[in-house]
Request: fold
Amino acid sequence: MRKIQMVDTKNQYLAIKDQVDASIQEVLESAAYINGKAVKDFGQHLATYLKAEYVIPCANGTDALQIAMMALGLQPGDEVITPSFTYIATTEVVALLGLTPVFVDVDPITYCMDIESLKLAITPKTKAIVPVHLYGHAAPMEEIMEIAKANNLFVIEDNAQAIGCDYTFSNGVTKKTGTIGHIGATSFYPSKNLGAFGDGGALFTNDKVLADKMAMIANHGQSERYYHDVVGCNSRLDSIQAAILDIKLQQLDKYNQARQAVAKYYNEAFASIPQIVTPAIAKYSTHVFHQYTMQLNGVDRDKFIAHLLAKEIPCMIYYPVPGHLQKMFGEGKYTNLNLPVTNSLTAVVCSLPIHTEMDNEQLNYITAGVKSFFN
Ligand SMILES: *Cc1c(COP(=O)(O)O)cnc(C)c1O
Reply:
């Protein structure tokens, strides 16, 4: 049996090696390493895939979130509402820009932003909402957009874990996550569903003014070469990464289907174990399973993890410490914040290996290993 890994980017590469190698070679020979044709082509292809008007590639997903907040003109002291139960990048950039992160709770079923918690968090200082499509499942965008509209707030979707996920509105209209809010931000970190062989990120929007502003900010605030209108940053997607991503984009739906097949296998295998809560999918969303995250109820999680690791089955906790309890936001500052679902999920979640290259032998071994803990 092949060694089990949380993600297997090596074998994913080998399956498309010839195409990827040729595309890299083309960039090498073109010598257009920065902002080359490959970057423009990939941006266009991604826009077509997402049905987004504009895609602005950038250096990574964290930068994408930062550029989005800069483009919206958010000012120090403005409040930005985000879930605490997310990867740190979402909330870190809020603090980095001198904005005030306002942490809200998540829904215990979808792990995404809780609507009641969001409503309660809005103050006159609130300027933006940053929902996260966590683990590959959409946040409840229809309600979020209604609340944003009623309160005149911007919405930036953190789509780093959900590229390819579909959101269906109550009127039957379906859109890709990341294209519903004012801006969508994503990451091409190698382990993401659409992963580069290095860092990468992108912004999506249907608003031309925002698109131009974000492109400008990502490029030193430049409108014309050496004319800098606003303070920006230097955040570019390398041509080599864009060339690789362009090849992998053609595989994205297949990759997401492979992840869904793994999740289905796990769900079926664990259905009879009452201590395991398998991931649920809301009616409005598909699930692209960036992670397969289950809840372990009435289980000593440390013992469970040790049991799996002894069998060389890797597993991870995403995330062991929620944002509001991270030292970076001021030790003890948010300790009294009432986020019961976030706090309880942190103690019970456990993610199993999920990627595009898993075979039945591995899946059978993993599920048998999990089941043997409960026997
Ligand atoms: C990966 C990730 C990011 C950051 O992306 P980078 O490319 O690593 O900067 C932001 N938000 C979420 C939810 C992520 O999973």
User: Anything to note?
Assistant: The chain has two domains: 9-104+111-249, 252-374. The first strand starts at residue 54 and ends at 58.
